[in-house]
């Protein structure tokens, strides 16, 4: 690494990075899931030397701030180090990253180098805050001036990464948003900043983080403050590339704001989405909508949503249930998203009076069977892929100078219904409570739904037995 030759120190950096990716090959069928041969035990004695020499290449050599192999080696070494070790070295490493970031601001030419630099920063923050959450404030204080420079100069190659790191720090920061963060919120809603399409995914995540951690301070109970955010939603919905992200914004709104703040806009919002569903005819958009409506119903009940949809057109709620939600729910893969669907549809079949009438009986049956399908089919684990695997997929797809997701900046999957430990238990016990209030009513609906479906009937019976739920 100390060689002056570009070729020699680049190969040395690449070799270090690759060595820490070698897996145990004793089982050829499980190589992609096999443990890594070299880890913290081998890294600890050489960590300081490796980090110092790798940063020296970036700082001292003419092509250092574009050498992606060196930046990748820095990322890999930091990601393999023990969090406790990283905490002790964090102030020194942060100064070095900060200096490199300033140099990159003047010459942002290599998207791969930039990506690995910000992955390194994300690893540093993640490992440090895992051990000492209060360090998030120190990172914020150190990085905010440089980030403000990037935003003021509108360095498009860097702004998506800055927004991702800002979101990460806000999510990790104990005690909610600081004054410097709160000062950022209103400028984030300015249309110009969203006109750079590369900013949009990162901005959506940052706004979600604001809603999660600082809803009261940013929007509170003032529906007028919400209008700027709804203007962003409407603009994103217009474009195919950002239509799904527009729904992510709405999920944050309905999950973290009081219903009174947005209820007056709900019918208009839903009407815009339904028009987009017809024009896009996209399965993935329909699935994101299904998750949104699940969070909305799961959090705030069926009636306000049913009334809002039927106010657009009488009977439209049944159509949306059948043609959109039931039709697309099987395509939702993530465990937490599927749980949201079970919670919401359980509330639908126990709270909607229209659905329980003779006219709605078949739709009730179809929703009931859809719930059983979601429960029966194994969901994809929320953490099925390791950071290393995600990075490999990103490398295969190629880095973009407009937007690439930072793998190490992800702080975990948000669970909209943490209070529901077991969705199957929630389903059968909620039905049991509802049936106790009207004996025989739900039993008839269930018998109709399961008619000619012995496998579904057996599955439902086993769920009830497992959770001691009696349908009266």
Radius of gyration: 26 Å
Fraction of residues in H or I helices: 55-70%
Could you give the count of β-strands?
Answer: 0
Number of helices, counting only DSSP H or I runs of 4 residues or more: 24
The end-to-end span amounts to 74 Å
List the helices and strands and how they pair.
Blueprint: H1 6-19, H2 40-43, H3 47-60, H4 68-80, H5 83-106, H6 111-131, H7 135-153, H8 159-172, H9 179-188, H10 191-195, H11 200-218, H12 223-238, H13 243-256, H14 259-262, H15 266-280, H16 283-300, H17 302-312, H18 316-328, H19 335-351, H20 361-376, H21 387-397, H22 423-437, H23 441-450, H24 454-466
Describe this structure in words.
It is a single chain. Helix content is 70%, strand content 0%. It contains 24 helices and no strands. It has helices spanning 6-19, 40-43, 47-60, 68-80, 83-106, 111-131, 135-153, 159-172, 179-188, 191-195, 200-218, 223-238, 243-256, 259-262, 266-280, 283-300, 302-312, 316-328, 335-351, 361-376, 387-397, 423-437, 441-450, 454-466. Helix 5 (83-106) runs antiparallel to helix 6. The longest helix has 24 residues, at 83-106. The N and C termini lie far apart (74 Å). 42% of the residues are buried. The mean pLDDT is 91.
